[in-house]
Sequence to fold (722 residues):
Amino acid sequence: MLLQQSMDLKEKLAILADAAKYDVACTSSGVERRGRPGQLGNAVYAGLCHSFAADGRCISLLKILFTNQCVYDCRYCINRRSNDVPRAAFTPDEVCRLTMEFYRRNYIEGLFLSSGVLKSPDYTMDLLYQTLWKLRYEHGFNGYIHVKAIPGADPVLIGQTGLLADRMSVNLELPTADGLRTLAPSKDRSRILKPMRQIQLGIAAQKQGIVPAGRMRPGMAYPWVRQFVPAGQSTQMIVGATQESDYQLLAVAEALYRNYDLKRVFYSAFVRVNDDSLLPALPGGPPLLREHRLYQADWLMRFYGFQAGELLSEERPNFNVFLDPKCDWALRHLEQFPVEAMTADYGTLLRVPGIGVRSAKRIVAARRGGRLDFPDLKKMGVALKRAVYFLTCGGRMYGPVRMDRDFITASLLGDERRRAWDIGQKDSYRQMSMFDDGFLNPAPTADDRSAAVLGQM
Amino acid sequence: MTIFVCPDSFEGILCGVYDAWMSRLGHANVALELADTGNLRLFAEYRQVEETAEKAEKVMKVVRRKAGQEVCERIFRASLSCEEQKADRIYRFLIYALHVGPGIVNMLQIPAVYELFRMNRFVENESRSLIEFIRFSQTEGGILFGTVGPKNDVITLMAPHFADRLNAENWIIYDENRRRAAVHRALEGWVAIQLPDDSFRKRLLASSDQAEFESLWKTFHERIAIAERRNPLCQRNHLPLRFRPYMTEFQRAEKKCANNLARSD
Fold:
């Protein structure tokens, strides 16, 4: 469909928000910046979520595409060239107006600007740069901006845009080069990694003081120092569109954290929006449980000191459906447990299932002032129903626990299985029962019902 | 048992602490209560606490010297809590705080410290949620007006964030449960005021010119959700229902009725 010029702002917003929704990154974290007199906005390090959409995902930023016209024909993408969908494009002024007015009313924390590739990567990147420039210098916007670097765009353009944005991201899309070649024939892994490396080096150079932060230009209205991508860069991978195992995905994520200094890797459960023979059919909906497990493992890698190789391996390439990765790891390493809450160091406490970063910090701080007992741990936010199997307090366990893998697995499973089932089979209900038999059958779907009525078994 | 009845304010509670402490009756024989809460007790003597700046300052000076800034901030936040027991809890906490010193904030195994920590967490969490979820509407003359209905008295904690963020705007945050408002003037400071009634709100909202951006925002909010991933439970976990009546994107036809009513009044 052709680009329609005569559209009002509301129609454009509807189309371009709709087109942007499959992008997962909507965080506004990573940079702390105070307001400037006369300007609009500041930034909070932890980020703020201003609303939550019907799918439960947070709405922090005004997430839109600049245009959903695209010269590429990636098979998984709703905006692929060969799709017949309504197309629209904002003007830089329209984006600025939306951002400023939404921000003033506290609807959003900033702007997330991505785009389909219009004409060429350079042309598109230039449009994004112009928009950001107007927003920063003409409108005096001091809030958070996340912008996509378009692979293949000129490094100068990406470098200049980085001085206006808080976070930049380049989507890896698929974890392996093979997958990318099959589903996105016009994209190339090395072209994706190139801007990523450029952003990484830019951030590093600034940190080490090789490049002075920001450059003063004559006639600049706001002559303060601008930093290059102060909130770091992120990327995203689609889960379940190709045949990669969880181990491969996690290994790629780990490599990205390690070699490219990424702040975040996002995982996006594949939603089949195009009817393409090369895409997998997903009768059970998007692989949400798998995505959930990947995020759990991602947190374990970033905050809990785990490595991909500890959680999964070539022999066990996929996550346990019924247990979260940390419980799963602990059960395979029972020789390291139980841990004594009063004496174990912070790193060891973090590896106990049911103890998180906050509760571990609270335990370490509190035990200096006196003895702790299990009820105290519960008050500090420890999930006792998982932790009791792995923890002693003052040399004693919570109750009679056999340090036996089968026993603990069976005790943990009931609860975990129900939760995993809830994620996998959302929106369905289950008869409550006095005797929990553990048979969690999914509710019949509309298709099942019609098949039963029509006698098609 | 002697019960000291103090006014429901930070200074009032501090004066209560001062009177109870200086009465020299012994910590076990005194209790603090807020005025007009709870039931009267048999066999207890009630004393009214007189609120003076001098007593409050004395208490703060001692707390700051012996227990540090962090404890001062904590008792201030606890005094904003909606719980009826807060005055007595602050008193019990201060007994430990003045004895132990700054390290007391981490000793959650002590029940008095945990209670204060819990009240603090509730107040902080609610104020952070409302910083995220408050919605401003623009009235005539460009004043941004936002209404909240919090359980705790959090607008004094919210105002500094917006004074920094929206420093070039005139805005009002109105707590409709307490009829208190934080009012900010562009490029100057903000003040908290107590209002006799909410007639001004009707006046302000009657002249608001909203339709365009509210409908744009609703469109965006609707379109950004992925239908295949619909998950109302997750949405409710993150965004409890009690905040939603105040939020533009969840206001449907009822809001329009209310607005029309406000206009016809």
About this structure: The longest helix of chain A spans residues 405-424. The CA atoms of residues 261 and 270 of chain A lie 25 Å apart.
